[in-house]
């Protein structure tokens, strides 16, 4: 009696395929169900970090996320960037539905200096409840200074006479060497800036950070002829804003005071000669450019404490 082995093998394969098909459907259903799972607000920041790590191929440790933000429609967003600091960062947003389901994560922009990225601009324009400022400051400090939120200590919110608010903090929370910082919020409770204010040998009384000069490229959005950039300077420090323009164009510059001492600014031609000498920040500038190339506007803090400001540029 001969047995058809080929037929038996085909029958076995067919049965195995039939059994595998329902299993595949079950696994797919489980995956879909997990996508629709509600995420607790307190877990959204960590959840977003994991999703960003998986999508962009970055290690979770190299991803910084900010505190959860709630939209008027009940949805939530978590903004973040990688790496946490440096000359080149990529920013992203995680979105959660009004029912707290994870919706998506996508890139929102790139930054040349790690400080003026798209998610930062978004945060600058959003009013922050006073009760949330301490935690919000912790997130901003974590992202800017590359420290884990758990290693950052923040103090209770302080209100200034002009209606602005400050949150002071340090990292690490204790020890022989700490770095102190300040977060500032405008009178309308918008986040303004976070800067280092000093270093301390005992965690309490710090000396001011050493003066430094930073360079910030200025780019105008498509279809516009101006830009606004918020900044902060420690005593003795300056920021050099570089924007490219042509001879004969009109330049407008205004340095708006936010907090701290009044600032000064000066403008250099591309050949490094003065277009405008040292000028107090309460005087705006309008004038015609004499040369083509990189125009430099340098904002300087000559005061004894940190100063916050916003510089407005326009070219016609």
Describe this structure in words.
By secondary structure, the protein is of the alpha+beta class. It is built from four helices and 19 strands. The chain has helices at residues 5-35, 44-56, 118-124, 133-145, and strands at 64-65, 69-70, 76-82, 89-96, 102-111, 153-154, 158-159, 165-171, 178-185, 191-200, 213-217, 226-233, 238-245, 250-259, 264-268, 274-280, 285-288, 293-300, 307-315. The model is unreliable at 1-35, 112-124 and 202-208 (pLDDT under 50).
What distinguishing features does this structure have?
alpha+beta, 4 helices, 316 residues
Task: Provide a compact summary of the structure.
This protein has 316 residues and is of the alpha+beta class.
Global mean pLDDT? 79
Q: Helix fraction?
A: 10-25%
Q: Please state roughly what percent of the residues sit in beta strands, choosing from under 5%, 5-15%, 15-25%, 25-35%, 35-45% or over 45%.
A: 35-45%
Give the biggest sheet.
Answer: 5 strands, antiparallel
By secondary-structure content and strand pairing, the structural class works out as alpha+beta
Order of helices and strands: HHEEEEEHHEEEEEEEEEEEEEE
Distance between the termini: 98 Å
Tell me the overall shape.
Answer: globular
User: How many beta strands in the DSSP annotation?
Assistant: 19
Number of helices in the DSSP assignment: 4
Question: Uncertain regions: pLDDT < 50 for 5+ in a row?
Answer: 1-35, 112-124, 202-208
Compute the gyration radius: what is it? 26 Å
């Amino acid at each position: 009696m001969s047995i058809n082995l080929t037929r038996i093998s085909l029958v076995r394969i067919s049965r195995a395929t039939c059994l595998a098909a329902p299993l595949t459907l079950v696994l797919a259903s489980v995956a879909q169900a997990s996508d629709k799972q509600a995420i607790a607000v307190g877990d959204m920041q960590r959840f977003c970090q994991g999703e960003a790590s998986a999508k962009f191929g970055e290690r979770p440790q190299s991803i910084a996320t900010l505190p959860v933000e709630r939209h008027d429609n009940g949805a939530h967003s978590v903004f973040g960037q990688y790496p946490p600091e440096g000359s080149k960062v990529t920013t992203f947003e995680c979105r959660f539905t009004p029912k707290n389901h994870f919706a998506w994560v996508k890139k929102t922009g790139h930054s040349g200096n790690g400080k003026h990225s798209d998610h930062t601009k978004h945060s600058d324009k959003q009013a922050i409840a006073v009760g949330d400022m301490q935690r919000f400051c912790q997130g901003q400090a974590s992202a800017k200074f590359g420290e884990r939120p758990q290693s950052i200590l923040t103090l209770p919110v302080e209100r200034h006479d002009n209606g602005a608010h400050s949150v002071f903090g340090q990292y690490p929370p204790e020890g022989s060497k700490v770095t102190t910082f300040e977060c500032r919020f405008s009178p309308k409770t918008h986040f303004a800036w976070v800067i280092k204010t000093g270093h301390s040998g005992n965690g309490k009384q710090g000396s001011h950070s050493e003066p430094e000069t930073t360079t910030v490229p200025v780019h105008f959005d498509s279809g516009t002829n101006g830009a606004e950039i918020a900044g902060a300077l420690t005593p003795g420090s300056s920021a050099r804003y570089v924007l490219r323009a042509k001879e004969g164009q009109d330049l407008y510059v205004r340095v708006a005071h936010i907090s701290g001492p009044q600032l000064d600014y000066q403008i250099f031609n591309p050949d490094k000669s003065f277009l405008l000498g040292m000028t107090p920040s309460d005087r705006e500038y309008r004038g015609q450019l004499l040369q083509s190339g990189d125009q430099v506007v340098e904002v300087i803090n000559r005061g004894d404490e940190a100063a916050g400001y916003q510089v407005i540029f326009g070219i016609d």
